[in-house]
Structures are given as structure tokens and as C-alpha cells.
Amino acid sequence: MKSILAVVLTLLISHHAMADGQAEYKYRQGVMRTVGGQMSSLAAILRGQVHFANLKFHARGMADLAEIVPHVFPEGSGVKKSEALPDIWEQPDEFKKTMEKFVTAAKGIATAAESGDMSAIGPAMKSLGQACKGCHDNFREDADR
Ligand code: HEC
Asked: Domain residues of the chain, as ranges?
């Protein structure tokens, strides 16, 4: 029993240590696409084009993503194809501040949508958009997109 446990622990630990930059990059891409999808959905609803009652679900989805996004930028994941700039790891304090703005804004849109107070949703959406842009401008290649 003891030896099996030892093997399992070793596997778990070595798995952890063997950070795979390529896998992390792919994962980040998928997560960011989800973030982009939620953002487009929120925008479509706020333009009045689609099912309004879904607003709070997309907003909650964005708040959930705010729990995920801080963990998709591990060191070593700035692989060749990635648009993540080295500043992410070279200026960790700046990056952390930028990340915190996003987390706050994502939670803010969820709170606003939950409250149903339309006057709060506009500003919350604006802050969220600025949080995306704030990070893309400084930490993502080709920020023109
Ligand atoms: C803290 C930084 C940060 C925040 C905040 C952020 N992004 Fe990103 N985003 C990035 C970086 C860096 C990349 C490039 C990732 C890579 O190529 O490895 C990226 C890539 C993307 C992509 C392209 C995914 C793909 O197909 O490769 C989309 C879409 C995207 N972000 C949308 C958003 C939206 C919408 C928001 C706001 C709601 C947002 N991002 C907030 C840093 C951020």
C-alpha cells in the first residue's frame, strides 16, 4: 500500500513540475476564446439583439472566468506561437495589477446583472471592456485586434 501511494504521489508531483508550455498555451487560448465568447454575448444582449434573460448567465460566466484567467499564464507558456508578451513574466507586479482590474470588472458585471439595475450594467460593461483592452494593449502582441 505504502509503495503504491509513493508512486501516485511521485506521479502527481512530477506531473506538476513538468509544466508543459505548449499545453498551457493551448489551454490559455481556449480560455481566452471563452472569455471572448462571453463578451460578444453580453454585447449582443446589451445591443438589444438577443434574449435578454440570458444576460445574468453570461455575466456570471464572466465572473467564473475571472477565477480561471489568473491561472492561465504560468512561466514557460510564452511559446513561439503565443501572442503573450514576455512582459507578463518580466513585470509581474504590473501584470498582477492589470489582472486584478479584470477580476474586479468581471465580478462587477455579474453583480450588476444580478441586481437587474440597468443603470449599473452600462458602466460595468465599460469597465470590463477597458480591462480587456488594458491587458491586450500592454501584454499581448498585435494589440490592434
Ligand atoms: C490580464 C491580461 C488579459 C486580460 C484581462 C484579457 N486578456 Fe485576452 N488575451 C491576453 C493575452 C496575453 C492573449 C494572447 C494569448 C496567447 O496567444 O498566448 C489574449 C488573447 C485573447 C483572445 C484570442 C484567443 C485566441 O484565439 O488565441 C481573445 C478572443 C481575447 N483575449 C479576448 C479577451 C476579452 C474579451 C477580454 C475581456 C473580457 C480579455 N481577453 C481579457 C491577455 C488578457
From this structure: 21-139
Which of 33, 132, 137, 142 to mutate for ligand 1's pocket (most ligand atoms within 8 Å of CB)?
A: 132
The string of pLDDT tens digits covering residues 6-40 is 877 776 766 555 569 999 999 999 999 999 999 99
Q: Left (φ > 0), alpha (ψ -120 to 50) or beta: where does 85 sit?
A: beta
Which residue type is seen at 29?
Q
- pTM for this structure? 0.89
Would the CB of 73 count as within 6 Å of ligand 1?
no
Chain CA centroid to CA 119, Å: 25
Closest ligand 1 atom number to CA of residue 131: 5
- Counting from 1 in the atom list of ligand 1, the atom nearest the Cα of 79 is 18
Q: What is the pLDDT of residues 87-133, one digit of tens each?
A: 999 999 999 999 999 999 999 999 999 998 999 999 999 999 999 99
The CATH number of the domain covering residues in 21-139: 1.20.120.10
- With cell 484567467, the residue in question is 69
